[in-house]
């Protein structure tokens, strides 16, 4: 059953105690992600129950993928995830969610759907451009439902890589485009690329800018994730005036090569 979800979530009033602090906003704006430990800890049984209701229902349509981004290994996706769950749909209007979204996007935001995932795979480095070009500011609110560390698939992010027009981000996006080339280009495997690993417990909320380059390693055992996505209502308004677009750093050879 599809739940009634309001696509135009703009300006639903939210009590100021649910807003992020100026420090949390500055952290997010600067590094491109934020973790709020335990924000949903009190509701975790209901949240996990809602997740398993959908993935445990044999009638539920799912997408099974084996993409290069995931080493050609299995990932199972349910698009429009919370929309189909009476137990999870209320999250769209939960004041904790709205407080985060209004703090990071402002009053002019739009619901951009949700997705549920079972990962039997790793995820190589990428930013989220599906249905959202880099110019269109989006934030993702992620609920990982297992105890995760770097040893079993915790999400990794490259701080600052959300500044997508800058040389650093454009160099990474070019070089990560083909995961098979990472070792040739950098001399290390993908899992040794400098990044922050966000260890998490069920009930934590991890938020990232779609543009922030992220990946996960060592996690192939039914890792559970669902995410709520929100974007600025009018593409290109969040970032203010147009930014200068810099070139990626050019490749060069050692002298004599
Ligand atoms: O946890 C993962 O393996 C990757 C998640 C991800 O890339 C995403 O949800 O955009």
Question: Topology, pairings included?
Answer:
Elements: H1 22-31, E1 33-36, H2 44-55, E2 63-66, E3 74-79, H3 95-105, E4 109-119, E5 123-126, E6 138-144, E7 155-157, H4 167-176, H5 182-186, E8 196-197, E9 205-209, E10 214-216, E11 223-232
Antiparallel strand pairs: 1-9, 2-3, 3-4, 4-11, 5-10, 6-9, 6-11, 7-8, 7-10
SSE order, one letter for each helix or strand: HEHEEHEEEEHHEEEE
How is the main sheet built?
7 strands, antiparallel
The number of helical runs is 5
Number of E strands: 11
CATH H-level superfamily title: q2cbj1_9rhob like domain
Helical proportion, percent range: 10-25%
Rg over CA atoms, rounded to whole Å, is 19 Å
- Strand fraction equals 15-25%
Q: Which class do the helix and strand fractions yield? A: alpha+beta
Through-space gap between termini:
63 Å
Label the overall shape.
globular
Give unreliable regions as ranges.
none
The distinct ligands, each listed once, are:
2-oxoglutaric acid
Assign the CATH topology: Jelly Rolls
């Amino acid at each position: 059953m599809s739940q009634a979800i309001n696509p135009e979530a703009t300006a639903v009033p939210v009590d100021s105690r649910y807003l992020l602090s100026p420090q949390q906003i500055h952290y997010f704006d600067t590094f491109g992600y934020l973790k709020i430990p335990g924000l949903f800890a009190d509701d975790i049984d209901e949240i996990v129950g809602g997740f398993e209701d959908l993935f445990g229902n044999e009638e539920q349509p799912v997408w099974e993928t084996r993409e290069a981004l995931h080493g050609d290994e299995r990932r199972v996706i349910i698009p429009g995830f919370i929309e189909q769950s009476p137990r999870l749909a209320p999250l769209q209007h939960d004041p904790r969610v709205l407080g985060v979204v209004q703090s990071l996007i402002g009053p002019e935001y739009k619901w951009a759907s949700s997705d549920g995932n079972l990962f039997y795979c790793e995820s190589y480095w990428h930013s989220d451009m599906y249905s959202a070009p880099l110019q269109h500011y989006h934030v993702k609110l992620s609920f990982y439902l297992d105890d995760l560390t770097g040893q079993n698939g915790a999400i990794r992010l490259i701080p600052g890589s959300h500044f997508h027009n800058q040389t650093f981000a454009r160099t990474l996006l070019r070089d990560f485009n083909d995961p098979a080339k990472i070792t040739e280009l950098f001399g290390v495997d993908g899992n040794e690329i400098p990044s922050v690993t966000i260890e998490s417990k069920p009930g934590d909320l991890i938020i990232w800018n779609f543009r922030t380059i992220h990946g996960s390693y060592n996690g192939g055992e039914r890792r559970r994730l669902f995410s709520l996505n929100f974007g600025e209502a009018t593409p290109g308004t969040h970032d203010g005036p147009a930014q200068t677009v810099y070139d990626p750093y050019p490749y060069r050879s050692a002298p004599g090569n």
